Amino acid sequence: MDSGATIAAMQTAARALGAGSDRDAIRAIQAAQDALDAAKADRLAKLEESRAYELDGASSLNTWVRNELRLSAKDAAKLVRASSTVVQLPDVAKAAEAGEIRTDHVAAFTYGIKHVGAQVIQQSESWLLDVAKTCEPLELFKVVRALREAVFPDDLDKAWAEGMDRQDIQVNPVPGGWHVSGFLGVTTGAKTKKVFDSVSAPRDADDTRSGAERRVQGLDDLMTKILESGLPSDKGVRPHLSVIVGAETLQAAVDPQTTTRPVEPAQLAGYGSVGPQVLGYLACVSDFTPILTQKPGEFTQARILNVGRSHRAPTLKQRRAVLARQGGICAAPGCNHTHLEIHHVIWWSKRGPTDLDLLVGICVRCHHLHHRGLLNIAGNAHDGFEFTNKSGRALRRRRNHYLQAA
Fold first, then answer.
1. What is the pLDDT of residues 47-68, one digit of tens each?
2. What is the pLDDT of residues 279-334, one digit of tens each?
3. In the chain, where are the structural domains located?
4. 363 and 341 in contact (C-beta within 8 Å)?
5. Which residue, 355, 351, 353, 389, is CA-closest to 373?
6. What is the biggest distance separating any 2 CA atoms in the chain, rounded to whole angstroms?
7. Which of 119, 228, 272, 348 gives 20 to 30 Å between its CA and that of 378?
8. Taken in order 269, 275, 276, 279, is the CA torsion positive or negative?
9. pTM for this one?
10. Under a CB-based contact definition with an 8 Å cutoff, are residues 20 and 88 in contact?
11. Are 61 and 6 in contact (CB under 8 A)?
Protein backbone atom coordinates (compact mmCIF):
# COMPACT_ATOMS: atom_id res chain seq x y z
CA MET A 1 0.00 0.00 0.00
CA ASP A 2 1.20 3.48 -0.92
CA SER A 3 0.56 5.70 2.09
CA GLY A 4 0.89 8.86 -0.01
CA ALA A 5 -2.83 9.02 -0.82
CA THR A 6 -3.76 8.62 2.82
CA ILE A 7 -1.33 11.29 3.95
CA ALA A 8 -2.57 13.66 1.21
CA ALA A 9 -6.18 13.16 2.33
CA MET A 10 -5.23 13.94 5.92
CA GLN A 11 -3.34 17.06 4.87
CA THR A 12 -6.31 18.26 2.85
CA ALA A 13 -8.58 17.77 5.86
CA ALA A 14 -6.15 19.65 8.10
CA ARG A 15 -6.08 22.62 5.72
CA ALA A 16 -9.88 22.63 5.40
CA LEU A 17 -10.25 22.61 9.17
CA GLY A 18 -7.99 25.63 9.43
CA ALA A 19 -9.37 27.84 6.67
CA GLY A 20 -12.08 26.11 4.61
CA SER A 21 -15.84 26.48 4.77
CA ASP A 22 -17.90 24.07 6.82
CA ARG A 23 -19.01 22.26 3.67
CA ASP A 24 -15.44 21.86 2.41
CA ALA A 25 -14.23 20.80 5.84
CA ILE A 26 -16.88 18.10 6.20
CA ARG A 27 -16.11 16.70 2.74
CA ALA A 28 -12.37 16.67 3.48
CA ILE A 29 -12.88 15.05 6.89
CA GLN A 30 -14.98 12.28 5.35
CA ALA A 31 -12.37 11.64 2.65
CA ALA A 32 -9.61 11.48 5.27
CA GLN A 33 -11.68 9.13 7.42
CA ASP A 34 -12.32 6.82 4.46
CA ALA A 35 -8.61 6.85 3.60
CA LEU A 36 -7.66 5.97 7.17
CA ASP A 37 -10.20 3.14 7.22
CA ALA A 38 -8.59 1.75 4.07
CA ALA A 39 -5.12 2.02 5.60
CA LYS A 40 -6.37 0.22 8.70
CA ALA A 41 -7.85 -2.61 6.60
CA ASP A 42 -4.58 -2.95 4.68
CA ARG A 43 -2.51 -3.24 7.86
CA LEU A 44 -4.98 -5.72 9.33
CA ALA A 45 -4.57 -7.91 6.25
CA LYS A 46 -0.80 -7.94 6.83
CA LEU A 47 -1.35 -8.70 10.51
CA GLU A 48 -3.58 -11.63 9.58
CA GLU A 49 -0.94 -13.00 7.21
CA SER A 50 1.87 -12.73 9.77
CA ARG A 51 -0.29 -13.89 12.72
CA ALA A 52 1.58 -11.35 14.81
CA TYR A 53 -1.61 -10.79 16.82
CA GLU A 54 -0.60 -13.88 18.80
CA LEU A 55 2.30 -11.86 20.25
CA ASP A 56 -0.33 -9.85 22.14
CA GLY A 57 -1.97 -12.99 23.50
CA ALA A 58 -4.90 -12.91 21.07
CA SER A 59 -6.22 -16.20 19.68
CA SER A 60 -7.44 -14.62 16.43
CA LEU A 61 -7.34 -11.35 14.50
CA ASN A 62 -10.94 -10.71 15.52
CA THR A 63 -10.03 -11.05 19.20
CA TRP A 64 -7.02 -8.75 18.73
CA VAL A 65 -9.21 -6.07 17.12
CA ARG A 66 -11.69 -6.25 19.98
CA ASN A 67 -8.95 -6.06 22.62
CA GLU A 68 -6.66 -3.46 21.07
CA LEU A 69 -9.12 -1.25 19.15
CA ARG A 70 -12.00 -1.58 21.63
CA LEU A 71 -14.51 -2.42 18.88
CA SER A 72 -17.69 -4.44 19.26
CA ALA A 73 -17.75 -8.00 17.93
CA LYS A 74 -19.87 -6.87 14.97
CA ASP A 75 -17.59 -3.96 14.02
CA ALA A 76 -14.49 -6.10 14.55
CA ALA A 77 -15.80 -8.81 12.20
CA LYS A 78 -16.68 -6.20 9.57
CA LEU A 79 -13.19 -4.71 9.74
CA VAL A 80 -11.50 -8.10 9.50
CA ARG A 81 -13.60 -9.02 6.44
CA ALA A 82 -12.66 -5.72 4.79
CA SER A 83 -8.97 -6.50 5.29
CA SER A 84 -9.38 -9.67 3.21
CA THR A 85 -11.30 -7.86 0.47
CA VAL A 86 -8.70 -5.14 -0.16
CA VAL A 87 -6.07 -7.84 -0.68
CA GLN A 88 -8.15 -9.55 -3.39
CA LEU A 89 -9.26 -6.30 -5.10
CA PRO A 90 -6.28 -3.93 -5.52
CA ASP A 91 -8.23 -1.25 -7.43
CA VAL A 92 -10.83 -1.16 -4.66
CA ALA A 93 -7.97 -0.79 -2.18
CA LYS A 94 -6.53 2.18 -4.09
CA ALA A 95 -9.92 3.91 -4.32
CA ALA A 96 -10.45 3.42 -0.59
CA GLU A 97 -6.96 4.76 0.19
CA ALA A 98 -7.74 7.90 -1.82
CA GLY A 99 -11.02 8.41 0.05
CA GLU A 100 -13.08 7.87 -3.12
CA ILE A 101 -15.17 5.10 -1.53
CA ARG A 102 -15.84 4.21 2.09
CA THR A 103 -15.93 1.07 4.22
CA ASP A 104 -19.60 0.38 3.45
CA HIS A 105 -18.72 0.23 -0.26
CA VAL A 106 -15.92 -2.22 0.58
CA ALA A 107 -18.51 -4.28 2.50
CA ALA A 108 -20.55 -4.57 -0.71
CA PHE A 109 -17.49 -5.97 -2.52
CA THR A 110 -16.96 -8.36 0.42
CA TYR A 111 -20.55 -9.53 0.00
CA GLY A 112 -19.91 -10.08 -3.71
CA ILE A 113 -16.78 -12.15 -3.12
CA LYS A 114 -18.69 -14.40 -0.72
CA HIS A 115 -21.94 -14.77 -2.64
CA VAL A 116 -20.92 -14.37 -6.28
CA GLY A 117 -17.32 -15.56 -6.21
CA ALA A 118 -13.92 -13.91 -6.13
CA GLN A 119 -13.22 -14.54 -9.81
CA VAL A 120 -16.46 -12.93 -11.01
CA ILE A 121 -16.00 -9.87 -8.77
CA GLN A 122 -12.39 -9.47 -9.87
CA GLN A 123 -13.46 -9.54 -13.51
CA SER A 124 -16.20 -6.98 -12.76
CA GLU A 125 -14.07 -4.82 -10.45
CA SER A 126 -13.64 -1.91 -12.87
CA TRP A 127 -17.30 -1.21 -13.63
CA LEU A 128 -18.44 -2.03 -10.11
CA LEU A 129 -15.91 0.49 -8.86
CA ASP A 130 -17.44 3.13 -11.16
CA VAL A 131 -20.78 2.44 -9.48
CA ALA A 132 -19.20 2.69 -6.03
CA LYS A 133 -17.62 6.07 -6.78
CA THR A 134 -20.91 7.61 -7.91
CA CYS A 135 -23.54 5.90 -5.73
CA GLU A 136 -24.21 5.28 -2.07
CA PRO A 137 -23.36 1.83 -0.66
CA LEU A 138 -26.97 0.62 -0.74
CA GLU A 139 -27.12 1.07 -4.51
CA LEU A 140 -23.86 -0.85 -4.91
CA PHE A 141 -25.32 -3.70 -2.84
CA LYS A 142 -28.32 -3.81 -5.19
CA VAL A 143 -26.04 -3.99 -8.25
CA VAL A 144 -23.96 -6.80 -6.70
CA ARG A 145 -27.11 -8.76 -5.86
CA ALA A 146 -28.32 -8.31 -9.45
CA LEU A 147 -24.96 -9.63 -10.65
CA ARG A 148 -25.37 -12.68 -8.45
CA GLU A 149 -28.78 -13.38 -9.93
CA ALA A 150 -27.38 -13.00 -13.45
CA VAL A 151 -24.49 -15.38 -12.78
CA PHE A 152 -26.61 -17.99 -10.98
CA PRO A 153 -30.16 -17.66 -12.38
CA ASP A 154 -31.42 -21.18 -11.64
CA ASP A 155 -28.91 -23.20 -9.65
CA LEU A 156 -27.56 -20.67 -7.14
CA ASP A 157 -27.33 -23.18 -4.29
CA LYS A 158 -25.42 -25.68 -6.43
CA ALA A 159 -23.03 -22.95 -7.63
CA TRP A 160 -22.33 -21.85 -4.05
CA ALA A 161 -21.62 -25.40 -2.90
CA GLU A 162 -19.44 -26.33 -5.89
CA GLY A 163 -17.73 -23.00 -6.62
CA MET A 164 -17.17 -21.17 -3.36
CA ASP A 165 -16.86 -23.64 -0.53
CA ARG A 166 -17.70 -20.91 1.95
CA GLN A 167 -19.99 -22.78 4.32
CA ASP A 168 -20.57 -21.10 7.65
CA ILE A 169 -23.15 -20.86 10.40
CA GLN A 170 -23.14 -18.41 13.30
CA VAL A 171 -25.25 -17.99 16.43
CA ASN A 172 -24.75 -14.56 17.98
CA PRO A 173 -26.43 -12.93 21.01
CA VAL A 174 -28.58 -9.88 20.24
CA PRO A 175 -31.03 -7.94 22.42
CA GLY A 176 -33.97 -10.20 23.13
CA GLY A 177 -32.43 -13.48 21.94
CA TRP A 178 -29.99 -14.98 19.44
CA HIS A 179 -29.47 -14.32 15.74
CA VAL A 180 -28.79 -17.38 13.60
CA SER A 181 -27.19 -16.81 10.21
CA GLY A 182 -25.10 -18.67 7.68
CA PHE A 183 -25.10 -20.87 4.61
CA LEU A 184 -24.96 -24.67 4.32
CA GLY A 185 -23.82 -26.76 1.38
CA VAL A 186 -26.01 -29.28 -0.40
CA THR A 187 -25.37 -32.34 1.79
CA THR A 188 -25.17 -30.61 5.18
CA GLY A 189 -28.23 -28.53 4.34
CA ALA A 190 -30.16 -31.63 3.27
CA LYS A 191 -29.34 -33.37 6.57
CA THR A 192 -30.38 -30.29 8.55
CA LYS A 193 -33.62 -30.00 6.60
CA LYS A 194 -34.40 -33.68 7.20
CA VAL A 195 -33.91 -33.25 10.97
CA PHE A 196 -35.96 -30.04 11.02
CA ASP A 197 -38.80 -31.67 9.08
CA SER A 198 -38.81 -34.52 11.57
CA VAL A 199 -38.77 -32.51 14.83
CA SER A 200 -41.16 -29.81 13.55
CA ALA A 201 -43.87 -32.04 12.07
CA PRO A 202 -47.40 -31.58 13.48
CA ARG A 203 -47.95 -33.92 16.42
CA ASP A 204 -51.45 -34.85 15.31
CA ALA A 205 -54.50 -33.49 13.50
CA ASP A 206 -55.25 -31.20 16.44
CA ASP A 207 -51.82 -29.53 16.48
CA THR A 208 -52.66 -25.88 15.78
CA ARG A 209 -49.14 -24.47 16.19
CA SER A 210 -47.74 -22.39 13.35
CA GLY A 211 -44.79 -23.64 11.30
CA ALA A 212 -42.47 -21.19 13.09
CA GLU A 213 -43.64 -22.41 16.51
CA ARG A 214 -43.15 -26.06 15.54
CA ARG A 215 -39.66 -25.46 14.13
CA VAL A 216 -38.41 -23.52 17.15
CA GLN A 217 -39.94 -25.96 19.65
CA GLY A 218 -38.51 -28.89 17.69
CA LEU A 219 -35.05 -27.34 17.73
CA ASP A 220 -35.33 -26.64 21.46
CA ASP A 221 -36.35 -30.26 22.15
CA LEU A 222 -33.47 -31.52 20.02
CA MET A 223 -30.88 -29.33 21.75
CA THR A 224 -32.18 -30.39 25.16
CA LYS A 225 -31.77 -34.07 24.32
CA ILE A 226 -28.25 -33.52 22.95
CA LEU A 227 -27.13 -31.60 26.03
CA GLU A 228 -28.62 -34.20 28.33
CA SER A 229 -27.10 -37.29 26.75
CA GLY A 230 -25.74 -36.70 23.27
CA LEU A 231 -22.36 -35.06 24.02
CA PRO A 232 -19.32 -36.63 25.72
CA SER A 233 -18.41 -35.46 29.21
CA ASP A 234 -15.29 -33.36 29.78
CA LYS A 235 -13.55 -34.45 33.01
CA GLY A 236 -16.87 -35.31 34.59
CA VAL A 237 -18.81 -32.28 33.38
CA ARG A 238 -21.11 -32.48 30.39
CA PRO A 239 -21.55 -29.35 28.25
CA HIS A 240 -24.53 -27.47 29.61
CA LEU A 241 -26.08 -24.04 29.93
CA SER A 242 -24.91 -22.06 32.95
CA VAL A 243 -27.03 -19.42 34.66
CA ILE A 244 -25.27 -17.44 37.38
CA VAL A 245 -27.79 -16.01 39.82
CA GLY A 246 -27.78 -14.64 43.35
CA ALA A 247 -29.99 -16.22 46.00
CA GLU A 248 -32.19 -13.13 46.34
CA THR A 249 -32.69 -12.86 42.58
CA LEU A 250 -33.65 -16.53 42.35
CA GLN A 251 -36.06 -16.18 45.24
CA ALA A 252 -37.64 -13.10 43.66
CA ALA A 253 -38.18 -14.98 40.38
CA VAL A 254 -39.70 -18.03 42.07
CA ASP A 255 -41.83 -16.07 44.55
CA PRO A 256 -42.07 -12.33 43.65
CA GLN A 257 -44.05 -11.58 46.83
CA THR A 258 -41.06 -12.30 49.07
CA THR A 259 -38.77 -9.57 47.67
CA THR A 260 -39.63 -5.90 47.43
CA ARG A 261 -36.28 -4.25 46.73
CA PRO A 262 -34.44 -4.35 43.36
CA VAL A 263 -32.12 -7.29 42.73
CA GLU A 264 -29.37 -7.89 40.18
CA PRO A 265 -30.53 -9.82 37.10
CA ALA A 266 -29.40 -13.38 36.46
CA GLN A 267 -26.63 -13.95 33.90
CA LEU A 268 -26.90 -16.58 31.14
CA ALA A 269 -23.30 -17.53 30.28
CA GLY A 270 -22.32 -16.37 26.80
CA TYR A 271 -25.42 -14.21 26.44
CA GLY A 272 -25.91 -11.73 29.29
CA SER A 273 -28.73 -10.62 31.58
CA VAL A 274 -32.09 -12.41 31.54
CA GLY A 275 -35.34 -11.26 33.15
CA PRO A 276 -37.23 -12.86 36.05
CA GLN A 277 -39.70 -14.69 33.80
CA VAL A 278 -36.93 -16.36 31.79
CA LEU A 279 -35.12 -17.17 35.03
CA GLY A 280 -38.28 -18.68 36.47
CA TYR A 281 -38.65 -20.93 33.44
CA LEU A 282 -34.99 -22.02 33.57
CA ALA A 283 -35.27 -22.66 37.30
CA CYS A 284 -38.25 -24.92 36.62
CA VAL A 285 -36.32 -27.20 34.24
CA SER A 286 -32.78 -27.04 35.68
CA ASP A 287 -30.60 -28.47 38.42
CA PHE A 288 -29.07 -26.16 41.04
CA THR A 289 -25.51 -25.98 42.34
CA PRO A 290 -25.41 -23.77 45.46
CA ILE A 291 -22.12 -21.88 45.75
CA LEU A 292 -21.17 -19.79 48.76
CA THR A 293 -19.31 -16.62 47.82
CA GLN A 294 -17.20 -14.36 50.00
CA LYS A 295 -17.90 -10.76 50.92
CA PRO A 296 -14.93 -8.41 51.48
CA GLY A 297 -13.56 -8.83 55.02
CA GLU A 298 -15.11 -12.23 55.68
CA PHE A 299 -13.10 -15.37 56.38
CA THR A 300 -11.79 -17.21 53.35
CA GLN A 301 -13.95 -20.04 52.05
CA ALA A 302 -11.69 -21.19 49.20
CA ARG A 303 -9.64 -23.63 51.29
CA ILE A 304 -12.74 -25.80 51.75
CA LEU A 305 -12.42 -26.62 48.03
CA ASN A 306 -8.62 -26.84 48.02
CA VAL A 307 -7.08 -30.29 47.57
CA GLY A 308 -3.42 -29.26 47.45
CA ARG A 309 -1.27 -31.88 45.73
CA SER A 310 -3.57 -34.81 46.50
CA HIS A 311 -5.29 -34.60 43.07
CA ARG A 312 -4.05 -33.14 39.77
CA ALA A 313 -7.46 -32.90 38.11
CA PRO A 314 -9.84 -30.34 39.66
CA THR A 315 -12.83 -31.86 41.40
CA LEU A 316 -16.34 -31.47 40.02
CA LYS A 317 -17.17 -28.90 42.71
CA GLN A 318 -14.02 -26.94 41.90
CA ARG A 319 -14.86 -26.86 38.21
CA ARG A 320 -18.36 -25.60 38.92
CA ALA A 321 -17.02 -22.99 41.31
CA VAL A 322 -14.57 -21.69 38.69
CA LEU A 323 -17.32 -21.49 36.06
CA ALA A 324 -19.55 -19.58 38.49
CA ARG A 325 -16.74 -17.20 39.43
CA GLN A 326 -16.16 -16.32 35.76
CA GLY A 327 -19.78 -16.17 34.70
CA GLY A 328 -19.29 -19.25 32.54
CA ILE A 329 -16.99 -17.59 29.97
CA CYS A 330 -13.28 -17.72 29.22
CA ALA A 331 -11.23 -15.57 31.61
CA ALA A 332 -8.92 -14.28 28.84
CA PRO A 333 -9.66 -10.65 27.89
CA GLY A 334 -11.74 -10.33 24.73
CA CYS A 335 -12.68 -14.02 24.59
CA ASN A 336 -16.31 -15.07 25.17
CA HIS A 337 -16.13 -18.83 24.58
CA THR A 338 -18.15 -20.90 27.04
CA HIS A 339 -16.54 -24.34 26.61
CA LEU A 340 -13.70 -24.09 29.12
CA GLU A 341 -10.76 -26.09 30.40
CA ILE A 342 -9.55 -25.64 33.98
CA HIS A 343 -5.92 -24.53 34.12
CA HIS A 344 -3.45 -24.51 37.04
CA VAL A 345 -1.97 -20.98 37.18
CA ILE A 346 1.05 -22.57 38.83
CA TRP A 347 1.52 -25.62 36.63
CA TRP A 348 1.03 -29.00 38.26
CA SER A 349 4.36 -30.09 36.76
CA LYS A 350 5.99 -27.20 38.66
CA ARG A 351 4.54 -28.31 42.00
CA GLY A 352 1.42 -26.16 41.72
CA PRO A 353 -1.49 -27.09 44.00
CA THR A 354 -5.05 -27.83 42.86
CA ASP A 355 -6.45 -24.97 44.92
CA LEU A 356 -9.53 -23.01 43.90
CA ASP A 357 -7.82 -19.61 44.05
CA LEU A 358 -5.12 -20.86 41.66
CA LEU A 359 -7.46 -22.39 39.07
CA VAL A 360 -8.74 -20.43 36.08
CA GLY A 361 -11.13 -21.38 33.27
CA ILE A 362 -9.91 -20.71 29.72
CA CYS A 363 -11.06 -21.97 26.34
CA VAL A 364 -9.09 -24.56 24.35
CA ARG A 365 -7.55 -21.98 21.97
CA CYS A 366 -6.39 -19.65 24.76
CA HIS A 367 -5.08 -22.67 26.68
CA HIS A 368 -2.92 -23.59 23.68
CA LEU A 369 -1.66 -20.00 23.38
CA HIS A 370 -0.61 -20.10 27.01
CA HIS A 371 1.39 -23.30 26.65
CA ARG A 372 3.06 -21.87 23.55
CA GLY A 373 4.27 -18.93 25.62
CA LEU A 374 2.10 -16.38 23.80
CA LEU A 375 -0.45 -15.75 26.57
CA ASN A 376 0.86 -15.56 30.13
CA ILE A 377 -1.35 -15.92 33.20
CA ALA A 378 -0.40 -14.89 36.73
CA GLY A 379 -2.11 -13.93 39.99
CA ASN A 380 -4.98 -15.60 41.79
CA ALA A 381 -8.75 -15.44 42.04
CA HIS A 382 -8.65 -13.39 45.24
CA ASP A 383 -6.54 -10.50 43.88
CA GLY A 384 -7.36 -11.02 40.21
CA PHE A 385 -5.70 -12.86 37.33
CA GLU A 386 -3.26 -10.93 35.15
CA PHE A 387 -2.93 -11.72 31.43
CA THR A 388 0.12 -10.56 29.49
CA ASN A 389 1.43 -11.17 25.98
CA LYS A 390 4.77 -12.64 24.98
CA SER A 391 6.52 -9.29 25.59
CA GLY A 392 5.03 -8.94 29.05
CA ARG A 393 2.56 -6.18 28.17
CA ALA A 394 -0.59 -6.42 30.26
CA LEU A 395 -3.83 -7.05 28.40
CA ARG A 396 -7.02 -5.25 29.26
CA ARG A 397 -8.46 -6.76 32.41
CA ARG A 398 -11.97 -8.11 32.44
CA ARG A 399 -13.93 -6.87 35.42
CA ASN A 400 -15.25 -9.93 37.22
CA HIS A 401 -18.24 -8.97 39.34
CA TYR A 402 -18.89 -12.62 40.10
CA LEU A 403 -16.12 -12.41 42.73
CA GLN A 404 -18.54 -10.34 44.79
CA ALA A 405 -21.12 -11.95 47.02
CA ALA A 406 -24.23 -13.22 45.25
1. 888 888 899 888 888 888 888 8
2. 877 777 677 777 766 654 444 455 556 766 777 788 888 888 888 888 888 999 88
3. 4-151, 168-230, 243-285, 302-403
4. yes
5. 389
6. 76
7. 272
8. negative
9. 0.51
10. no
11. no
